[in-house]
Amino acid sequence: MLSLRYALRALARRPAFGLIAIATLALGIGANAAIFSVFDAVLLRPLPYPDPDRIVMPWEYSAEVHQRLGFDRLPASVADFTDYLRRNRTFESFASMRTEQVNLTGEGMPERIGAVRVSSQFFDVLNVRPIIGRTFTPDDETRGRLVLVAYSLWRDRFESDANISGRVISLNGEPVTIIGVLPAWFQFPAAGELPEGFGFTLTPVVWALDVFTPVQQHNRGGKSIAIVGRLKAGVTPLDAQADLGGIAADIARESPATNAGWTIRVMPLREQLVGTVRPALVALLTAVGFVLLIACANVANLVLVRAAARQREICVRYALGASASSLVTTFLIESLTLSILAGLAGLAVASWMLRALLAMVPASLPSIRQAGLDWRVFAFTAGLALAIGILFGAVPAWHSARYDTAEGLKEGARGTVGGGRKATRTRNILVVVEVALAVVLLIGSVLLIQTFVRLTHVDTGFRSDRILTMEVTLPKSRYSPDRTAAFFQSVVASSSTLPGVDAAGITSSVPLSARESLVPVTIEGNPVPKPGLELIAEYRVVSPGYFRVFAIPLREGQPLPDAPSVNQPPIVMISETLARVGWPDGNPIGHRVKLASYWQDAPWYTVGGIVGDTRNASLDTALRPQVYVHHSSDAKEQMAIVLHASGDPALLAAPARAVVQAIDPNQPVARVRTMNEIMTAAIASRRFHMFLVGIFAGLAVTLAVVGLYAVVSFSVAERIHEMGLRLALGAQPGNLLALVLRDGLRLVAVGAAVGIVVALLLTRFLETLLFGVHARDLSTFVLAPTLLFAAGVLGCLAPARRAMRTDPAIALRSE
Predict the structure, then answer these.
(1) Cα-atom radius of gyration of the chain, to the nearest Å?
(2) 791-to-296, 302, 440, 745 alpha-carbon distances in Å
């Protein structure tokens, strides 16, 4: 208790030191606690399912498709899933799921909601039990359409009806029976957790039983089935991959036309949910770790300066009989008091930072939203504070043990001696470390900024300004293909006449909206492609107005006709990339193609025109072959209406919605967004990473410059007698300015050199986050140290100018 009272009195005598040290450490500790809470929620916290390590997701894989189109995982066909289900020997339960969006009608206002069709074992795989009712059983496959609903839908739409089990509702115009309500925490698969390109763009609130017809069970085309399975006890994911891989090889031998070259990859569920987030989180945790190290180096310098100022006091205590252990205890208690106060302040900083961070989290990173300050974060913060306290107590204790008591008690000895050359060297080393860490963070930040800038300047091939998009899904039970085509034709015609509309069209998929549709392309007259080497293209169903809305140029041929002739073969528009790949030595106009495999029966289309390439999947993927067919040739129930406005596109939302309601009042309009909003969402995760790393890099540079300023200032104070003597002997003030700047910037140069070497080793781990810039980009490795060097000049300038103004008489008299 005596040592604690002494430590508190010592801190009270120098409140500025305590406040600066606590504030500096609180920033570092708080940033680390906030990012650790995210890291813990995403990567460390157990998934909310029993035995989650036994849950895996198998995905089909083709090296050829991966190389050509960039997909490292693809869903399975219904026939493939059926074979995996029947033949596997390593799974306790095995289920399929495929996404859909449905219209909920008859229960208030029509509403479009996210849904997932799942096979009967789905909830057995996850081992989830409803709070009301039951889950699916194999016997349900003959009992009509059954669904379970999310807690949120049950609460908001059905007013928490306790007797909801057995209630019949209307989805897409068809009656379905609710058999249960799922727990409030259950949302799998939430938007962003599965590859969005295959339709998993909305968090589902309805889980419907999926029943495959005999025809579907033999269909190996149309890969749309995601698979999730629970392993048997003692089985590893590698065992399951070998098991399913053998089945995939058998299927490839049995059906080479559709499955040659395809195998399967088994991913643990956690890896599937957070695998794309892990590199960014590791980068952020590393960044805040560097910030904490810089903060610690700053405070260590303060502690060393304070210990040097107390040299005479320490020597007196040694002379009066104090033991080394008692002084070590005193230093430890002082530093632990500081670190504990900094830890408490750091929790407040972490709470503020976490709220700000969660407000910026893009929808594509749903797992981060689970982060919070729980007991694990408190334990992490407490451990960090204690470790820092012990470290800062050991540093001054180590230096004080080397003081010369007799020298320190001499009349001329002053508290600003600085502990000698060893203490000065230690302070300089700490500054070098700070600068090196700041350089690494600054290089990483500049790389991410370049990535973001390059993404925003990618040539998409279409215009995005003043475009409004909205989605409509028609129920198959009420709309035949002819009625579907007529409905959307009426929508386009009526929308075109709205005031402020320059062009109107429809499309099966809006660019960059994370919805993929791929088809094989067979060119008439070409030889049979080798299995697995088929020409594959992105597929869009559009109206002619689509090209006018997005200003996609016609390169050759004729535009898509407004009303295709029933007496002429259907027309297909192709992209420049498809024309170049499919007809490397000829003109494709007038040639016939089939949008199916060579051996499949499908209608033939005539290439009517070539349009410009567009980036439909994402901004950072390579251009792919693309085909466009008229919506009357393949009437899709789910389409997006796209309008180009002469002014603000948001003002068209209400009139366009009214157009749809006038044609069919029961059809809800969903996902009303401007194209600029879609573009912003496409780069949201990149912006998020860039912003956070940039903030931490800025904080690191600031702390490094402050540390440099403190060391140079103290060095000037230590050398005040030397400065006065130099001036007395005829030195010019400019000489002192150059002397101080040279000494300070030498530390910056050494730190920058060390930082560049460390960055060369670490930036390769950022490669998955970069686009259009190499991890070892020369300009970045020049720019970042240059920026820090300029900041270092500012940090050294104030103490250097102070040295210039030294009065020789006062300096020599003080000695």
Answers:
(1) 34
(2) 20, 20, 15, 10
pLDDT at 630: 93
DSSP 172-183: TTEEEEEEEE--
Task: Compute the Cα dihedral for 285, 288, 294, 298 and give only its sign.
Answer: negative
* Side chain identity, residue 738: A
Residue 784 in tokens: 């970042």
Sign, Cα dihedral of 11, 14, 15, 20? negative
Closest CA to 518 of 799, 104, 197: 197
Indicate the length of the chain as a whole number.
815
Q: Among candidates 697, 691, 699, 690, which has minimal Cα distance to 769? A: 690
* Chain centre to alpha carbon of residue 340: 33
Given this model, what pLDDT does residue 400 score?
56
The verdict on whether omega for the bond into residue 189 sits within 30 degrees of 0, i.e. cis, is yes
Residue 670 three-state SS: strand
68-78 confidence digits (pLDDT tens) = 777 788 899 99
**Cβ atoms of residues 198 and 227 within 8 Å:** no
State residue 37 phi and psi, 5-degree precision: -60, -35
Q: Position 325: which residue type? A: S
Tokens of 530: 């080798």
Contact of 203 with 191, CB cutoff 8 Å = yes
- DSSP code at position 530: P
Give the HSE-up count for residue 438: Cα atoms under 13 Å, Cβ half-sphere: 33
Closest-CA residue to 553 (of 498, 509, 609): 609
Amino acid identity, residue 763? T
Distance of alpha carbon 815 from alpha carbon 810, whole angstroms = 9
Cα–Cα distance, 387 to 365 (Å, whole number): 32
- Among 87-96, 312-321, 788-797, the minimum mean pLDDT is found in 312-321
- Three-state SS string over 379-438 comes to HHHHHHHHHHHHHHHHHHHHHHCCCCHHHHCCCCCCCCCCCHHHHHHHHHHHHHHHHHHH
Query: Token pair for residue 673?
Result: 């967004």
Output the average pLDDT for the chain: 83
